[in-house]
Each structure stands twice: as structure tokens, then as C-alpha cells.
Amino acid sequence: MKKIFLVLLLLLVCNGCVPKSYIEQLGIITAIGYDQAEEDQVKGTMVIFQFDPTATASSQVVSAVADTSKGIRFRANRQTSHRLVSGQVRLLLFENKLAEKGVMRYMDTLSRDAKITDMGFLSVSDVPTEKLLKSGISEDAPNTGNYIQRLIEKSIHQEMIPNVELTSFIHHYYDVGIDPVLPLLSTQEEKTMIKGLALFQNDRFVQTLSEEDIIFLLLLKKDLKDAELQLQLPNEALQNYYKKRSINPATDGELHVSLNEVETDLSIQTKKNDPVSPSVHLKMEARLLEITKDIDLKQRKAIRKLEDEIAKGIEERLSLVVNQLKEEKVDPVGFGKEYNEKHRTNRITEESWRDQISQLDVSFDVEVKLLRYGISE
Q: Which of 181, 210, 239 is the last residue of a domain?
């Protein structure tokens, strides 16, 4: 009996020693933006969620300038009655001017913080992140930080951009033969949008890949399951298959095709002792959602010709994307990493590969099969 009494007494004493944190007293940081400030300092903007039944709003935004990310939080603590904690950070934004100088100093600090989830999304902004995070509430999100998080999450799920979680960026930064990428945000009519893809050389933002070219980079990075693709083809490509009696004359406008339910099987082959000459084999199945010319799709020859022209058009766009990567000496595809994984001798290093990227000579072999192409099938 005495032993039970002593155990209960110890439990009560220990329970009294544990520091208590009442949720109403906490300001939970859900998003952080970093902007370039004067004298090499950094301005940090934080979106804070607060559980306060007496408050008129469930979130607030505070900004502070300091030399480090921890210093920003220390100074921001002076601007709110809540104690700031970082257990729910889901979004990290970097102004493009700051990202050009390198973001790893901030990534390293965040990745070492056990209270910050490694599943948070990263992004670059071509406008100050303070402006983005302090803009009005969008759609059904309680604050702009949540809206941007949902925008990025949806874009990844719908295969519009690659994975941009903190862990993905860290892995690509440390892996040899591959560079990280992040979505580039901007504003249009006071609303945040994804403008393109930020290309990184190590941890420095160096160039933007246009919104239209993102899908072609994705085709080189991974197997797609349910993507969409828009493509312009030469006007004369299918002129032998235009319908004679057509509502839309064949001479009007350019020839565009829209594909959805795009599923791909990607294979990249490399040659021993020749890392700059990879071969890309891409098999694609898709549904023809729309075509801007009135093609007689009842003809099997027309379908085959259309598949060949789409494959040719994709190869041309892939080549243009690779040329841009060569100019900037960046490898978000991971051609170098692919080579190292398949060859144990004469492996590339980070330094040697950076010099060789501009010499890339990639060959493409694309096969396209249209599974569905309208009621005429």
C-alpha cells in the first residue's frame, strides 16, 4: 500500500514539473517568407495561426529584420502576445533576389529544427514574399499562406509541377548529378499564381523555366500517370486529312492539340565513359481532348499521322528545354545522377559534371499512342 502511495506521489510531483503550454497562448507559425533587406540582413514574414476565441481573426502576419532566421523569430515575438512556435510550418517562400545568393543557409537551419516538418513546401517569388503573405484572403483558405500551400499541393498532385518539399530540395542539393527546382510565384490581379519553375545551380536561383515548358521537364524527370499537355503542330502536318466540309476552315488559325490522361513510361540510357550522351526513350499514351483543325479522325491513317506529329513535336520541345538547361549549366533532370547510378567506374563529381552539362548531346525517341480521340473513334 505504501509503495502504491509513493508511486502516485512521485507521479504528481513529476507532473507538476512539466512546463505547460496552453494552446490559446501559442502563435503557431504556418508559413514563412524571406526577403532581402539592407546591409545583408533578411526580412522574415510569418503567418501565425492563433486559437483565441476572443480574437476577430484566426491568423495574423508579422515581419521582422535580423541576421538569422532564429533572430527573426526572436524579434517577431515582440510584436504579438502569443508565444511563437514552429510546429506547423507548411510553406517556405524566398524572394528571387535572396534566392540568387543561395538559400541553403536557411534550409540547413530549418532541416535541423525537429519542430519543423520536412514535408513543408518551398517556393521562390518574383515579388517580395511580405507582399504575398500580407495580401487578402483567397478562396476558402483562412489566410494567404494556406492558399499558396494548397495551390502548390494541388499542382503537384495534378502533375503540373515536380515535388517541391523540403526533403526533396535537400536531397537534390546533396546528390551528385542533379539540381533542385522550385515553383516561381507571382501575382496577377492581386492573386498569387505559379508563373514558372525556378532553376537552381546548387542552391542558387539562376533562371526561370516558363510555365508552358514545365510539362516537358516533367516528361524527362518521372513517369506521369494522369497529366495534361498542350502542343502546337505545323499547319501543314495534317493537311491531307482535313474534312472537305468543315465548320472550321482548315486555313483558320494555328494547329493546336490538347491531350489529357497522359501516362508515360520513361527510360534514360547512358553510355560507359560518356556521361554527356544519354538517350531518352519515352512511351506515351493519352486521350485527344481537343484539336483546333477539323481532322477526319475516322481514318486510321489520320490517327497514325497525328500520333507521329505529336511525337515529333514533343521531341522538339524536349530538345529546346535541354538547350536551356545547357546554357545555364543546370541539370534538374538528373542526367549526371542517372549516369553514376548505372556505372561504377569513371563516375562524375559535382565539379566535373557542372563543366560537362553544356556539352550534353541528348537523343530522343518518343512514341505516342492515342487511346481515345472523340466520338468518331
A: 210
